[in-house]
Structure formats: C-alpha cells, structure tokens
Amino acid sequence: MNKIRLEEVIESGDLKEAVKIIEDVGEKLDHTFTPILLRYLVTTDSVLLRNVIAITLADLGDSEAVLPLIDLLKNPKTKGNRGTLLYALEFFDVSTYVVMLVDLLDDTFEASRQSYQLISTVQDKISEAQKDICRQMIRRKLTDHKNKYKRDFLLESLELFT
C-alpha cells in the first residue's frame, strides 16, 4: 500500500477511494500508516473520513490515537457526530479521561450511551477522587433544566460511581 496514494486521494476529495485504502490498512494492520491517519483524523472536516480513520486506528490498536480522539470529542465541530469516535475509544484504556466522558452523558443519545459504555468498562480503574468529581458533575447535570428528559439516564449513570 502506498501512503502517497492515500494522501493524494484524500487531498483530491476522492472519499470513496480513500475509505477503501483506509479500510485495507485496517484489515492488513499496517501500522506504518498511523502518522498519516492521525494527521487526517484531526484535520479533516469529513465526518465519513474521520469515522473510518477512527475505526481503523482502533483496529490498529495504536495508543497514539487516544489523545487525538479525546481532543476531537471536545471539539465543537464533532457535535452530533461523536458516537464513532467514542466507539473507537473502546479499544483503549480511557480511565484517565473519565471526567471528560462524564461531560458527554448529556450529549446526543448515541454519544451519551457510548460514554456510559466506556465509563462502565473502566469503572474499576477510577480513583476515589475521580469518582467524587464525576458524581458532582452528574448531580449538576441533574439540576440543569435542559436535562429534564435525561434524568433517569443520569441517575443510572450516577450509580457507576458509587
């Protein structure tokens, strides 16, 4: 596989071909593409391309992907399109980012459920201090009027930190 070819098709906007190449990278577990994938993960405005790259990085298992994925979750440009990014994080230890994940519990339906899933997989690795912060955050979310329809889910989420 040719890294230059991947860059060419991405830059030309040929998303169909880019997706094909990126999926092939994931199937062959070609770690030499990691730097290119990381670069386009954070720079692309294409939701499709970003999602395919995120899944491929998860398949590759390169922990270098964790921080860029976390940063993207905080980026307003990913609002409404965070589910796949969160899914990709399931392949990594995200216990140090649990507070940020709690912040997404009142995001879109998919993002909130993916966050819950991620939190539940690392809850045994979370310190008491982190649990305290997370409980406080969820309690604040419970008092926010915009979350009135998410109350049951937030109460269930609170139980992860008891």
Automatic annotation (TrEMBL):
Q: Which SUPFAM superfamilies match?
A: ARM repeat (SSF48371)
The protein's matches in InterPro entries, at most eight in alphabetical order, are given as: ARM-like, ARM-type_fold
Record's protein name: HEAT repeat domain-containing protein
Q: Which organism is it from?
A: Paenibacillus polymyxa (Bacillus polymyxa)
What lineage is this protein's organism placed in? Bacteria, Bacillati, Bacillota, Bacilli, Bacillales
